[in-house]
What does this fold into?
Amino acid sequence: MKHLQTLLAVIAGLALASRRFLFGDDRLIASNTNPDNVGTHAGTVSRLPDAAIATRNLLHKVGSDANHSVVCGANAVPLGTIADEATAADVTAADVYVTVNLLGKGDTKRMVASEAISAGVLVFTAASGKVSLLSASAGTYYCVGTALTAASADDDLIEVADCSPIKTVVA
It folds into this structure.
């Protein structure tokens, strides 16, 4: 039995070697390979914007498909903060990528406040890609981290020790 296994291994090796010699293909073919668009990332991903981006540091979510990004609403699962701006022409051209800083990965994140926020409190998704205190209104929101700096008003930029989004339901 052991001789048969050895013979089969030799035949398989010769078949692979002859394939490479005849067809000039240095790739190994495996049955469990990932598609080309699946990989790993060290804290950022590049996405095509679904709409113009005039303000940086807003929360973004998955857009029209997995390769696109759009501003996150209060009840949507955020992907990360957007680091770039994009014009309407960039969106139309569909060849300008923006960087999304993934939540829960890498450095602290800058985020845009929708209201006054004290340092040291949890911040949650709010309308238009901003962050706020947990809303008293019924709904589903996502905790995105702890404010490290304070905001005194809407549109103030704050630093957040971010985390992977945590679903929070207000009844």
User: Anything to note?
Assistant: Residues 44-170 form one domain. The mean pLDDT is 86. Residues 2-23 form the longest helix (22 residues).
